[in-house]
Amino acid sequence: MPFPRVLFLTLIAKPMARILAGADVSGREHLPTRGPAIIVANHNSHIDTLLLLTMFPARTLKHVRPAAAADYFLANPVIGWFSRNIIGIVPVERKKVSRDYDVLGPAREALVRGDIVVIFPEGTRGAASDQMGRLKSGVARLAQAFPEAPVTPAWIAGAGRVLPKGRGLPVPLNCSVNVGPPLRWRGDRHAFMEEVRAALEALSREAPPLRWRED
Amino acid sequence: MEAIWEALRREPPALLWGLAGVLAALSLGAAVSVALPRLKPGRDYRNLQERIASWWVMAALLVGALLLGWPAMTALFALISFLALKEFLSLAPMSADDRLPILVAYLTIPLNYGLVIADRYGMYLVFVPVYVFVAVPFLMACIGRTKGYLARSSVFHFGVVTCVYALGYIPLLMRVPREDAPQAGAAGLVFLLLFATEANDVLQYVCGKLFGRRKIMPKVSPNKTWEGFLGGWLLTAALILWLGPWLTPLAGAGLWVVALALPVAGFAGDVTMSAVKRDIGVKDTSRFIPGHGGVLDRLDSLIFTAPLYFHLVSFFALSTY
Predict the structure, then answer these.
(1) Which residues of chain B lie closer than 8 angstroms to A174, CB-CB?
(2) How many of the other CB atoms lie within 10 Å of CB of B158?
(3) Could you give the dihedral angle defined by the CA atoms of residues B234, B235, B236 and B241, in that order, rounded to the nearest 10 degrees?
(4) What sections of chain A are H helices per DSSP?
């Protein structure tokens, strides 16, 4: 359902993200304009998905598909319908991780179709801080399978304050997205994941101080 | 079309001339941003172009609200207060336990502007300085986080006073009845405030660029100079002395006091917000307005000129307040 989805995202979600969460994007010129392409970002809040989707122009937006946990977003039929048709998620069956099941199957299919897949390599939402959790290597496996796809890092600051894990009521506060130059697959998974982490950490140092005081 | 002309004909002529002046100034800006890259190629003019494009949008919103009257101005400034307060609270050093007080801070916006709608001037004056001042530190004490308590509750109050209380004076001024400001009505009063404040910003900047030599506040705003400050002051004061009698009931001593005080207040607001930004460690409060930075970067001077202008004008020339 690409048409109502783009309509909802540009006419409702985008102004909402702008007014309630600031949504300042820098480095927009690094964003891919066509797929197959991969976006990697840190993850602290559901707001992250909203920010990453609404930073794309409408004509690219219909190809942008955030990878999301099937056990969480497809558990309930209403949220499931919304997640599939409006947010346009690529489901990841976190619970089915095993030798003979490819949890990245839907993401691969999306890349074959020429979509832009958003991956949160932390695998879950972290605490509302500048710290990143351990990165899972799924994104490296996707980059290996699609070496022509650029992997663009994006650092999101502030979203964990708007709607932290475990809270239902969002508090309007500004967020920012810093997009960096794309990375390319160079043949080694471990080295690639190190590159991803270094790129995200470099972007986090450029981000504005949208965080809680620590003491 | 016919209806719009009819509506414009009912507006005071001085106000229409003022709006025509704004249109002329914006057109000049647009012409410069188109001509400069042709005359002096090789430099990056994107910031200048974005800046001028944003001026057009901001002017359109404000002029629209001026012509539509106080309800539109109230709605516009309630939204601006929200955006400014959100920027302030996003950068201010608050703690994770302050999510509830932050929501309460936003709640002061409908209450503050509700008093403008209800036309309760006396209550407006005291609502934020007294009631919010008493209630919120108590709420924060009840939440029980004492680490950084004084700093957090003070930051909170600073944000509500600057972003909500000070800006609410603008729609409050729009409620002055026509007979109290017969020259150009309430819109004339507000127009002079907005025009003189923004002109002061631009004139200080231009005078500083042209003649700036001696730094005025090297620790807070290293780009500001005595020449820029004094040049902007003189030119803006002259502008107010010239336009004031056409747009407002100000005359004699009152006109002179406003003309001399407003540019200084604008400068004070500008450097105060610079000090806040320097303390937090950011250059701009956000990137909400292309070419300008954040809402607070644009409003810093207005936050100081609005309440001062309101009280000076009402002291010298209005019977309503």
Answers:
(1) 86-87, 90-91, 286
(2) 14
(3) 90
(4) 2-8, 14-21, 47-54, 58-61, 70-73, 77-82, 105-112, 138-145, 159-162, 189-206
Q: How far is B257 from chain A (nearest CA, A)?
A: 38
Q: How many Å apart are CA B159 and CA B169, to the nearest integer?
A: 16
Say which of B89, B147, B282 has its CB closest to residue A173: B89
Give the C-alpha separation, A83 to B255, whole Å: 61
Residue A82: pLDDT band (50, 70, 90) is confident
What are B179-213's pLDDT values in tens digits? 999 999 999 999 999 999 999 999 999 999 999 89
| Residue of chain A whose Cα is closest to the Cα of B98 | A212
> What is the pTM assigned to this prediction?
0.92
The residue in chain A having the minimum alpha-carbon distance to the alpha carbon of residue B293 is: A24
- Residue ranges of the domains in chain A? 2-206
Asked if the Cβ–Cβ distance from B90 to A215 is below 8 Å, we say no
Query: Distance between CA B202 and CA B26 in Å, rounded?
Result: 12
Whether A95 has a pLDDT exceeding 80, the answer reads: no
Q: Considering chain B, what is the average pLDDT of its residues?
A: 93
3-state secondary structure of A66: strand
Please state the domain extents for chain B: 39-68+181-321, 69-175
d(CA B103, CA B109): 10
Sign of the alpha-carbon torsion through A154, A159, A165, A170: negative
Q: pLDDT at position A2, please?
A: 67
Q: Assess: ipTM above 0.90.
A: no
Query: What pLDDT is attached to residue A102?
Result: 79
Contact residues, chain B to chain A, C-beta under 8 Å: 82-83, 86-87, 89-91, 93-96, 99, 102-103, 106, 147-148, 280-282, 286-288
Q: What percent of chain B has pLDDT over 70?
A: 100
Paired tokens of B38: 């042709």
Task: Give helix then strand counts, H and E, for chain A.
Answer: 10, 7
Question: pLDDT-derived band of residue B155, with 50, 70 and 90 as boundaries?
Answer: very high
Q: A212–B90: do the CB atoms touch at under 8 Å?
A: no
What CATH number has the domain spanning A2-206? 3.40.1130.10
Residue A56 CA to its chain's centroid (Å): 12
Shortest CA distance from A24: residue in chain B: B287
CB-CB under 8 Å, B82 with A172: yes
> What tokens does B266 get?
């604008």
CA distance B296 to chain A (A): 13
Q: Read out DSSP for B58-98?
A: HHHHHHHHHHH-HHHHHHHHHHHHHHHHHHHHHHS---GGG
Upstream peptide bond of A170 is cis (omega within 30 degrees of 0): no
Backbone φ/ψ region at B104: left (φ over 0), alpha (ψ -120 to 50), beta: alpha
